[in-house]
Amino acid sequence: MSKINSRPLSVDELNRFGEELDALRARTLASLGQRDADYIRRIVAGVRWLGLGGRVTLMAGAVLGCTVLPQLLWPLCIVGTVLLGLSKILENMELGHNVMHGQYDWMGDPSLHGLSYEWDIVGTSDNWRKTHNYSHHTWTNVRGMDDDIGYGLLRIFPEQRWKPFYLLQPLVAVVFALLFEWGVAMQDLRIGRWLAGRMEGRELWKMTTPVARKVGKQLLKDYVFFPLLAGPYFLPVLLGNVVANLIRNVWTYVIIFCGHFTADAEVFPKECVQNETRGHWYLRQLRGSSNLTGGRLMNLWSGNLSHQIEHHFYPDVPANRYAAMAVEVREICARYGQHYNSGSLARQFGTVVWRILRHAFPSKPGPARPLTVG
Amino acid sequence: METAIPQRTLLSRLNAVWAPPAVLDFWLSRLNPLWSWDQARARVVERRIEAEGVTTLVLKPNRHFRGFRAGQHVNVGVEIEGVRYTRSYSASDRPNADGRLRITVKAVQGGKVSQHLQAIPVGSVLSLGQAFGELAVPNDAAPCLLLAAGSGITPMLALVNAQAENGFAQPVRLACWARARAELVQAAALRALAASHPNFSVHFMLTGEAARAADEREGRIEPGHLAALLPGDEQAHVLACGPHGFVERARELLGERCLSFQAEAFSPPPRLVDASDQGRVRVTLLRSGRTLDIARNKSLLEALEEQGVTPRHGCRMGICNTCACVKPEGATRHLHDRGIQHEPTQALRLCMHAAQSDLSLEL
């Protein structure tokens, strides 16, 4: 584990830390306007055009490649699949995830309404709004409260109790990456509780119905409807859709794991959040989150989760503002002697991989790093 | 006028799979900004100045707009600086064969939307709601008195034009109140109608200028005005449209002389309460139909819970958006920055806002 030196803050310092971050939030919200609306509509357009481009190219590759121009089969199908994957990544991350946080509710546009938006992934938006917007964002990296710590499958932190099952986690982690959207879809069903006999089958069935409906719709769209449009040449289209979904799964997994599971990210015990003040909440978000460097392209394709710290400070502020806010956030953190966890994708994900490998085996937590003095 | 009744047809179910309405709308609006799978929209095809600070917009709706009757109004949505605002405007002309909808907008001081619409470029696309409202001229031989104050003239113009179409089968008398002559809307057209139809008369009441013409009078609504409109002990159907005070005064003055009384008052401003956070206000819960008195000095979430209502919620600190709900009217105060929000909103976070005035919530 790397050397980081975030000093514990006094109650007074914590309050001022919170006030400064609140002030930045208020200044940003007061300046929202046309350019933010234009930004998110450009993203919508990007999602649609990439999606159309991908599907048309894939279809052309399948039909032409299987008939008159066999040399075009592979190139067109690969380009189409990648475009479709990019469309899904942009939709899930920069559009869906941010819209569902209510970041663009101020616009009053029904198609960008946080509570009713439905995204292009097998998981339902309603489950996501609960597990992610509420549990994960309120109780970030608090053990026993934030289900996103290892998603109940992986041991990422030495503070999690070791079980022999975790010896398999290097393999489990790879399978989980490939099937990430299914993990997200099932997360709120708590199948583990049902298996352990702590939940009735009927309750599980009730929760499964909307999930099954959404899954059915997604499968019908990607694996039946669009492939069938290609008629007898459906197979390349079907495979292209499968691969596009896999590309999206792996990329979102990588970005999301870099958000809270890097070497310097911390977890917290439940006692930590009793009577939590706003300043303390901010500090906990900072200590539990990590950013990615990489400039505008990284910001776009990570849905601005490259600014995970800013996203956790301000989950309802339009994500296109995070880059500008980060300049001030960094400066505030420096003044309060707090480590600002940021690094390249390769470096950050490297530390995630190391955690997955290391904590597959028994391990002991390092010395506690207190958030506050006294 | 075409009728579009939303229903879950096989086509719409299929569409929901391969392209949900938002996706279809994206592509349809690339082809033509007016087109939509299920939303009513309209294009501004003409803009003309009616009077000082009064503009008429001629709107061409798409096929999802189900039409209107004279006297009805529609909600018009317009985007300003990235934010969609919705305001209700009366149709200011009867339905015509061209299927167009005319609204007449008076610039209100400090009114973001009414001022924006004064100069909105021809070709702009607005979102539309379906027409609503019950104002109508009763179908019998008794005279009908139309009383309009300020922009209350707009539904009356539509009603008068609708009556003109069938040659004023019954006596119709229109009285419009305005501050100055320059603010009168379509005065010349109304006078021309009155000159050619014995069954129709028009009277202009000026509150800030001296009367000059024979059909002009002075002052706010008073018994003298009404005696001129309704001589002797004649009775009439009365339709009044204007600010709340005007409508109430008309109702009071006419009393027994009304065969029927229909009114459209501009919604009174939310019961204004001092800028402090003391006292209580009335909250109407639209879904459950309940009305509650709640405290203003705490979040709406806490205040509602105090009254035994438990809205859906999560973090209770403004992060998770779970408690967001629709607020069609009323003012709220943000608990941190104390900013006051008057605009209707689709997503008000109950845990972060306190009631500032009486309000209604979709709960």
Describe this structure in words.
The complex is a heterodimer of chains A (374) and B (363). Chain A has helices at residues 11-30, 34-66, 73-100, 125-138, 169-178, 180-186, 191-195, 201-229, 234-260, 278-288, 295-301, 308-313, 322-335, 345-358, and strands spanning 291-292, 342-343. By secondary structure, chain A is mainly α. Chain A has one domain. In chain A, helix 1 packs across helix 10 (278-288), helix 2 (34-66) packs antiparallel against helix 3 (73-100) and helix 3 (73-100) packs across helix 9 (234-260). The model of chain A has no long low-confidence stretch (mean pLDDT 93). Chain B has 363 residues and is of the alpha/beta class. Chain B has three domains: 39-128, Elongation Factor Tu (Ef-tu), domain 3, CATH 2.40.30.10; 144-265, Rossmann fold, CATH 3.40.50; 275-361, Beta-grasp domain (Ubiquitin-like (UB roll), Roll), CATH 3.10.20.30. Chain B is built from eight helices and 20 strands. Chain B has a six-stranded antiparallel sheet with strand order 4-3-6-1-2-5, with helices on one face. Chain B has a six-stranded parallel sheet with strand order 10-9-8-7-11-12, sandwiched between helices. In chain B, strands 14-13-20 form a three-stranded mixed sheet, covered by helices on one side. The longest helix of chain B is centred in the middle third of the chain and has 13 residues, at 153-165.
Indicate the proportion of strand residues of chain B.
Answer: 25-35%
Label the overall shape of chain A: globular
What's the pLDDT, averaged over the residues of chain B?
90
Category from helices, strands and their pairing of chain A: mainly alpha
Q: Total number of helical segments of chain B?
A: 8
Main beta sheet of chain A: strand number and arrangement?
2 strands, parallel
Helix content of chain A: 55-70%
Proportion of residues in helical segments of chain B:
10-25%
> What is the end-to-end distance of chain A?
26 Å
Choose one word for the global shape of chain B: globular
Number of strands of chain A: 2
Looking at how many chains there are and whether they match, the oligomeric state comes to heterodimer
What is the assigned CATH homologous superfamily of the largest domain in chain B? Nucleotide-binding domain of ferredoxin-NADP reductase (FNR) module
Q: Ranges of chain A with pLDDT <50 over ≥5 residues?
A: none
At the first level of CATH, what is the class of the largest domain in chain B? Alpha Beta
The largest beta-sheet of chain A arranges its strands as 1-2
> Into how many domains do the coordinates of chain A divide?
1
- State the end-to-end distance of chain B: 35 Å
H/E series of chain A: HHHHHHHHHHEHHHEH
Sheet having the most strands of chain B: 6 strands, antiparallel
Strand content of chain A: under 5%
